[in-house]
Amino acid sequence: MNSPRKASSKAIKQTPAPATATVVQKSVGSAMPAVGKSTINDVARLAGVSKKTVSRVINDSPLVRPDTRERVQALMQQIGYAPDPQARGLAFRRSFLIGLVYDNPTAQYIVNMQYGALDALRNTGFELVVHPCDSKSEGYIQGIRAFVQRQKLFGVILIPRVSEDQDLADALRDMEVRYVRIASIALDEPSRMLQTHDRLAGVEVANYLESLGHRHLALITGPHRYRSSIERGGGFIDGLAKRGIQLSTDCVYEGGYTFESGVAGAERLLQRTPRPTAIFACNDEMAAGVYKAALRMGLSIPGDLSVVGYDDSPLASQLWPALSTIHLPIRDLGRQAAQILLAGEPALRGPRPAPSMAVTPHLSVRDSCQPPKG
Amino acid sequence: MNSPRKASSKAIKQTPAPATATVVQKSVGSAMPAVGKSTINDVARLAGVSKKTVSRVINDSPLVRPDTRERVQALMQQIGYAPDPQARGLAFRRSFLIGLVYDNPTAQYIVNMQYGALDALRNTGFELVVHPCDSKSEGYIQGIRAFVQRQKLFGVILIPRVSEDQDLADALRDMEVRYVRIASIALDEPSRMLQTHDRLAGVEVANYLESLGHRHLALITGPHRYRSSIERGGGFIDGLAKRGIQLSTDCVYEGGYTFESGVAGAERLLQRTPRPTAIFACNDEMAAGVYKAALRMGLSIPGDLSVVGYDDSPLASQLWPALSTIHLPIRDLGRQAAQILLAGEPALRGPRPAPSMAVTPHLSVRDSCQPPKG
DNA sequence: GAACCAATTGACACCGGTTACCATAACGTC
DNA sequence: GACGTTATGGTAACCGGTGTCAATTGGTTC
To answer: How many other C-beta atoms can be found within 10 angstroms of the C-beta atom of residue A359?
Structure first.
């Protein structure tokens, strides 16, 4: 009884529209709705309501009668209307763009992060804008600032290593833009952090190798200025210590997260007496370097030397023997980061995602480890 | 004599502004100009000209007297004004976003393409929005269409394999959005294409291996539905033929661009008599598979078997021995793609890039090949 | 010195949404 | 039936730019 009354009376009030509006004609004869051509005015006219009401429907305002809402929604669906993000953004004084800011982790890492973030952004009307930067260059923060302010970004995802820069985080907070930092430890309020728990992974590697029977171990870390390196290596050392094995400092080599530094580190470490029977390299690239050094020295893997890496890069399963390594569900991480940013956003176009669960790394066991000989 | 006259008379005409505008105050006492807060109205008021004139300056219109232009530009610089891309986009009925559409090449490829495109976009006011898609899913084109139309994209970069889809290209052309397709051969008008010349690279591999003395060769291709695979493999076969070597069909294995298919292919091919002394795998992953199969069979590389890959992925230099492979300057490719899209855009903020040069693949010789024994 | 022309410049409406504020209708209560 | 609430919709102004077109300006011509 309600809807027809309203609808008809209003329709008469409206400016007399031709029987078929331009927009509708476009979709005639096509299975696909004509997308991107109609405006909120068309919707209002065709639905026999005001712009304002359509706007309320778009933004999920409670001040719309359910049947009105449904009618408008159905119409929007039918003519393939989607609000213009630019116009909306202009009025809202912000955009529907999320920035992904990073400086230099591996390609695999970046791409998976992107996939994950996009998983969460799909059908929300938000888009992902990539923004690599060089955190070593003077004034890079100013560049990010300009980016954020010009685009009026809705939010920013920071991934290592820039995520560790407190100055950058402070700058973002000053600008009152939401951000999420992905890092190995808590550097910020929980609502702005996503932890990768690298320390736990380091401990897991220690436990695994110790339980295989290894007693002479060695460690190749990343650069000490990387938080991740400290956590991974630190966890490994702590884990061994908990099991009664003290790793002496000359069993630790500071690498650079590069293949070459892995080679160099292994060459040094494998000359020690007694020779280590297992090496934990803090990323896969360095582990590949260990392979190279070991093979050149005539050592077989895992016969003479067990190796564990970190990252589970494609490389890990393509080495021979396949490398046991720490796997981190990066895509999940990206998804969660985006979800955190979107949390509390009222009118998402898709279904609201379930609250996220913690993401933790775990050891992916392959063929590069076995109990030591003898 | 001119400028002051104009300035003063106009200034009087304008709405009486307070001596210091809000915007200017913001930048006082800070080395950095306050960015993102001022509007075209502020600039107009402070410069004593109309909005429209400022707009003309922004857009490099020739209808502005040089001294007026300079005065306005200086002011914009001083107060750190940058036009709002959303407002501009709304008025222009298009955005300043470039879409990067891809479906599934390797992470390295995607990331380098992004870096390249961003190189060209830096300081132009344009941003890069990533949009992976699944070209195997029904109606994926509709998804890209919605993306393009909703965001009113300025242009789109298509990279393999979606770049090979003519239906998608047609759809984009229908929507009148600029695009550039990156593919191994010319699939479109030159102004919309960027070729990777995979065939030439295949020929180069053939020449190289033949010149080392190999006569018993084998080929592991990618899936035949990939244009790149056809070109790489075809070039190899043609190149050998030109040098008098006919590659019989059972020396060709159709792989899937995956590590496992490389293993399987090598296992098959290495059982032939006479055993091939060299294998060209159409990407590095498969080449890594060849390594695994060969090593398992007790063959040494390059002593018993020479291997060439394609892509120059990080993997290539991290295998042992390091893999000789085809290197393609993907970052350059990305840069050029973006430059092509931006070509003819009147008011870029940065300097106009030099016209681009052709990008060609070349063989990067490492340690995985040597003349055959005996 | 008036007329005229080209070069500049500005007033105003508009892009497609939003908010602020007000008017109206529907509903239940007394 | 008057009245206060609550729900709903309408109007106008605005977000920060652009297009259109008329008005102003300066220099030139006669």
So the answer is: 21
